[in-house]
Design brief:
The structure is a single chain. This protein is α+β, with helices and mostly antiparallel strands. It has two domains: 5-25 and 194-346; 38-186, no CATH class. The protein is 34% helix and 18% strand. The protein contains twelve helices and ten strands. It is globular.
Length: 360
């Protein structure tokens, strides 16, 4: 793996990385990544989460406890499966504002053996903010963006759509039933891709794979997302593999223009009118990498649009679907016009000596 001397020293001092030998030794061992059956299917999975809802709604802050819960579903053999789990609230904005806070699930290894959840540890559950149709649409739209990202690059998270029933354990009542999704854990993604997650902040442009930066930036530009920072590891992860520089991986897209939630705002320091206003803000790279990214997005255009005609795509309200596709068509008009590509991407990129740290 090729890591800049500056970044390698910084990681070693922080104790988060011990050099390429550790990674290459694991890679050479032939150890296969653990199987996670949940992400092997694209069918929405029905689950019921029973938890004291009022209790977790009060859990706000950085050091909230794990709460007891149960997760129920139907197994592959048609028999019911009920698992004792723990849950904990997470996040920043949605934790403060949402009726249904984002949570992290905690599975016991022994309990999930032989179930669809085998191999999961503490994945994020991305839920609707409120028990309303529009907020459920936001979930499915964000889920679609993860699917698009997977088409663009295999160096991305797996996701699984859920039909989530919330049952309040205090009353025994069904509180809400909406779509949600589970996000593959960073460490599991890295293991699947024969790498490790670098958790140290402070990466600069020279530490990163330029081709991957171009794909990352072009994807964020396509979906109209400015709510990220590679250096601050804000909605971005760093994947280090046996060969090549560190790769940025994007996640968390609910503040994007493609989803266009009512609560989303653009990165303040950019002074954009709204989240539908695009701004390319990845690091500058050689024009050849930008050209390769454009070619990749063009090659995947039909597959991307086809996602909105399949079983999951048809869950999206036709008006919202048309709005998203027109937004993507506008992206393709930009990248396939030489003048627009130069002014809105190549000349708009972040200088390599600057920081992309967020202002919020």
């Amino acid at each position: 793996m090729r890591i800049t001397t500056r970044f390698a020293i910084m990681l070693a001092v922080a104790g988060t990385f011990t050099g390429s030998a550790a990674l290459t030794q694991d890679s050479a061992s032939g150890k296969k990544p653990k199987r996670v059956p949940l992400f092997e299917s694209t069918q929405p999975l029905e689950i019921t989460l029973t938890v004291n809802l009022k209790q977790i709604q009060r859990d706000k802050g950085d050091s909230v406890p794990w709460r007891a819960a149960t997760l129920a579903t139907i197994g592959a053999d048609g028999n019911p499966v009920t698992l004792p789990i723990k849950v904990r609230t997470r996040g920043i904005w949605r934790l403060k504002k949402c009726e249904f806070p984002p949570i992290r699930l905690n599975f016991a290894k022994a309990a999930v053996k032989g179930t669809a959840f085998q191999g999961l540890d503490k994945p994020k559950l991305v839920t609707f903010c409120r028990d309303a149709g529009l907020h459920e649409q936001y979930i499915v739209q964000e889920f679609q963006l993860y699917r698009i990202y997977q088409l663009i690059t295999p160096l991305s998270h797996h996701v699984r759509l859920l039909r989530l029933s919330y049952v309040d354990s205090a009353s025994g009542k069904l509180v809400a039933k909406r779509f949600a999704f589970l996000l593959e854990e960073p460490e599991a993604m890295a293991e699947r891709l024969d790498g490790i997650i670098v958790k140290e902040k402070g990466a600069r442009a020279e530490d990163l794979d330029d081709a991957a930066v171009a794909l990352f930036g072009m994807f964020e530009f396509m979906i109209g997302n400015t709510d990220f920072s590679i250096s601050a590891l804000h909605n971005a992860e760093l994947l280090s593999r046996p060969v090549g520089p560190v790769v940025p991986v994007a996640y968390d897209f609910d503040f994007s223009g493609a989803v266009n939630t009512t609560y989303a705002t653009p990165e303040p320091k950019l002074q954009l009118e709204n989240v539908r206003t695009r701004r390319y803000r990845a690091y500058c790279v050689d024009a050849s990498h930008v050209g390769a990214a454009v070619a990749q997005f063009n090659a995947k255009r039909m597959e991307i649009f086809a996602l909105y005609e399949d079983q999951i795509g048809k869950l999206i309200n036709p008006r919202l679907k048309d709005s998203a596709l027109e937004y993507f068509n506008d992206f393709y008009r930009i990248i396939n016009d030489r003048g627009s590509l130069r002014s809105q991407v190549i000349e708009s990129c972040l200088p390599r000596d600057k920081s992309d740290a967020p202002s919020r």
